[in-house]
Each structure stands twice: as structure tokens, then as C-alpha cells.
């Protein structure tokens, strides 16, 4: 099985970018190790702090953020980072070519139940000729990403990565501490009979999504010619991984549950990287009204509605929004 760095070299990925991803993976291996130590390493539970989103930070949110942040800022390759757990961008090296957005630990509510969590990342280049480190540098649409991926800390630890040439999956071999290629080309099936949504929010959705999901539930007794199954891991990283692995539609739609926060998922470090992966695997990713990767961001922590997955199913869902 091939190690992950030579695979990227074969793909003619820029050497600095390979080095950056490899550096990032060093921190993910550390997170993986600590997570698997679990209760033994005193890493479960919450801190007394809240992040900028008003969410209580788990100990592991903070540890993961620190590990990734430190290694990236010391790498010499990164101009600045934007993280879910940092209020503002954090500057790195003056000559760094890259900007990295990340969700250090996605699915925090799963930590204490020993269930799926992951790290999501998105890499862009500093726009030509720009000096210093500013938030404006980060405000580029998702189409500008040069790499995106996630590390899923499941029964095995896997890296799913795109540099714009398809999606590959690697599995961490703990005996040698290396990510080895385990799936050369992840492709999302065009059709599916599986959907993922937090059903408890149903009454707060807008009309098109209410109608679409109730038609899925009605299955072949309604307007559809097949029946559907439902899954919800409550970690986008786990739900999107299932979609990439066996197809499906995943959505976190706009809702009115909390009028101050109509959307849950964050554009820069959740929706954009996942959209890049999904599109590279032949799927579709949209807000319902716009391709996610074409959104012009206005701030690093902005939130967005997400509908992604199997092409024909997402297109059907988008039909309800017309
Ligand atoms: P995070 O743990 O990084 O804050 O993200 C959690 C997100 C996302 O991963 C998941 O799809 C969603 O929250 C789950 O939301 P519900 O709690 O509404 O199911
Ligand atoms: Mn998240
Ligand atoms: Mn998180």
C-alpha cells in the first residue's frame, strides 16, 4: 500500500502544499492517539469557556485546536489560520503562501459518548501580491481552495483528501504512523435511498424542505417510486463520510428554531471543504439556491444552509426550491 506523500508527488501537487498537508497530518495523528486513549488521558468533558459561536468548548476542542494551530503556525508555510475555536484569524509566517481554515474537532457532542468525530480543513493560497495577514485574505469563494479534506477518528483513523484531482482515502497504520492509500478514487453514486437530516427540526424548516423530506418519508406511497432509509450521526464529518462511501443526501437546512442563527454549519471550515470533496467525487453541493463553492464569503465564521450528496437526489431536492 502506498504512503500518502508519494501519492501526492505522483499527482504533481506543489511540494510546499504536500509539506503543509503532511505537517497538518502530524497533528491529526496526535489527536487520533489522544482520542483513542479516551478517558485514560483525561480529555473528555467540557471546559468552562465558550467559543465565538457561543458554544461551550469541550476539552478536546481546545486541545485539538492548539495542536493544529501550533504546528501550522510554526511550519513557515502558513500566512494565517482561521479556526472554529479562534475568534479571529491568527497570523503565522510573513512569507507563508497558504491560508488554512479548520474545524479542529467536528461533532463535539459525540466526544463523551465515544462516537464519531473528525477534523475538517480547507487550504487556499494568499492572493497574489498581498502582504501581512488579514481576514480579507480569507474571503475567497470555495472554488479557490487548493486542497480540502477531513480526518475521521473512527474505529480506524482515515484521511479523505482532494487537491482537485478526485478524492482519495487513506487509513492510518498505527504500527508505522503513516496514512496508507486505501481507496484510489471515491465516487458518490448518482442515486440513493438514504437521507441524513436532524428530523427534530422539521417544523422549523422552510416549506420546500418540509415538502421534500415528507415526500422521502412517504416513499412509494407518495410521489416517489422508492422507499428511503434515514441516518444521522450528528457529526457532519461522519455523515459526509457515509455519503462519500455509499451515497446519500445530507442536509442541514435553514430553520427558525433560533431566529438569530438560521443556519448551523459554517461556510469556511465545514461547508466549503466538504463541498469540494463532494463535487470532486461526482456529487452536488448547494444551499438550495446557490452552489456553495461560489458563495462570496463576508466573514470567516459565517453560516450557511447545506444540501449535498448523490447528484440525482440533490437535484430532485433543488427542484423543490425553484
Ligand atoms: P461542531 O461540533 O464542530 O460544533 O459541529 C457540529 C455540527 C455538525 O458537525 C453536525 O452535522 C451538526 O452540528 C449536528 O447538529 P445537531 O446537534 O443539530 O444534530
Ligand atoms: Mn463542526
Ligand atoms: Mn468543531
CATH class of the largest domain reads Alpha Beta
Low-confidence stretches: none
Tally of distinct domains = 2
What does the radius of gyration come to?
19 Å
CATH T-level topology of the largest domain: Fructose-1,6-Bisphosphatase, Chain A, domain 1
Structural classification: alpha+beta
Order of helices and strands: HHEEHEEEEHEEEEEHEHEEHEEEH
Number of strands: 17
Query: What's the shape?
Result: globular
| Main sheet makeup | 8 strands, mixed
Arithmetic mean of pLDDT: 96
Please work out how many helical segments DSSP would assign.
8
Q: Based on the structure given, which CATH architecture of the largest domain is correct?
A: 2-Layer Sandwich
Beta-strand portion reads 15-25%
Structural features, described:
There is one protein chain. Helices cover 30% and strands 24% of the residues. It is built from 8 helices and 17 strands. It folds into 2 domains: 4-183, Fructose-1,6-Bisphosphatase, Chain A, domain 1 (2-Layer Sandwich); 194-321, D-Maltodextrin-Binding Protein, domain 2 (3-Layer(aba) Sandwich). With 322 residues, the protein is α+β, with helices and mostly antiparallel strands. 45% of the residues are buried. An 8-stranded mixed sheet has the order 4-3-5-6-7-8-9-10, with helices on both faces. Strands 12-11-13-17-15 form a 5-stranded mixed sheet, sandwiched between helices. The structure holds 2,5-anhydro-1,6-di-O-phosphono-D-glucitol and manganese (II) ion (2 copies). Residues 55, 84, 103, 106-109, 198, 234-236, 252, 264 line the site of 2,5-anhydro-1,6-di-O-phosphono-D-glucitol. The site of one manganese (II) ion (MN) has 6 residues, from strand 5.
Amino acid at each position: 500500500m502506498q504512503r500518502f506523500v508519494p501519492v501526492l508527488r505522483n499527482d504533481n501537487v506543489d511540494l510546499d502544499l504536500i509539506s503543509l498537508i503532511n505537517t497538518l497530518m502530524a497533528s491529526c495523528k496526535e489527536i487520533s492517539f489522544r482520542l483513542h486513549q479516551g478517558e485514560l488521558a483525561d480529555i473528555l468533558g467540557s471546559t468552562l469557556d465558550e467559543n465565538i459561536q457561543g458554544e461551550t468548548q469541550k476539552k478536546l476542542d481546545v486541545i485539538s485546536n492548539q495542536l493544529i494551530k501550533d504546528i501550522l503556525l510554526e511550519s513557515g508555510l502558513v500566512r494565517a489560520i482561521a479556526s472554529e475555536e479562534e475568534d479571529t484569524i491568527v497570523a503565522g509566517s510573513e512569507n507563508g503562501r497558504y491560508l488554512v481554515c479548520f474545524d479542529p474537532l467536528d461533532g463535539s457532542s459525540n466526544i463523551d459518548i465515544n462516537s464519531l468525530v473528525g477534523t475538517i480543513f480547507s487550504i487556499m493560497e494568499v492572493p497574489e501580491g498581498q502582504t501581512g495577514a488579514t481576514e480579507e485574505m480569507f474571503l475567497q469563494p470555495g472554488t479557490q481552495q487548493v486542497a480540502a479534506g477531513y480526518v475521521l477518528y473512527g474505529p480506524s483513523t482515515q484521511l479523505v483528501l482532494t487537491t482537485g484531482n478526485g478524492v482519495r482515502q487513506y487509513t492510518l497504520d498505527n504500527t508505522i504512523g503513516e496514512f496508507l492509500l486505501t481507496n484510489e478514487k471515491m465516487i458518490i453514486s448518482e442515486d440513493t435511498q438514504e437521507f441524513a437530516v436532524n428530523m427534530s427540526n422539521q417544523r422549523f424548516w422552510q416549506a420546500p424542505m418540509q415538502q421534500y423530506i415528507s415526500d422521502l418519508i412517504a416513499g412509494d406511497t407518495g410521489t416517489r417510486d422508492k422507499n428511503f432509509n434515514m441516518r444521522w450521526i450528528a457529526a457532519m464529518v461522519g455523515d459526509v463520510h457515509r455519503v462519500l462511501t455509499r451515497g446519500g443526501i445530507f442536509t442541514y437546512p435553514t430553520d427558525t428554531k433560533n431566529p438569530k442563527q438560521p443556519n448551523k454549519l459554517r461556510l469556511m471550515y465545514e461547508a466549503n471543504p466538504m463541498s469540494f470533496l463532494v463535487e470532486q467525487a461526482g456529487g452536488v453541493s448547494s444551499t438550495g439556491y446557490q452552489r456553495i463553492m461560489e458563495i462570496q464569503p463576508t466573514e470567516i465564521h459565517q453560516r450557511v444552509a447545506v444540501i449535498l450528496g448523490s447528484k440525482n437526489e440533490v437535484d430532485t431536492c433543488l427542484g423543490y426550491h425553484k
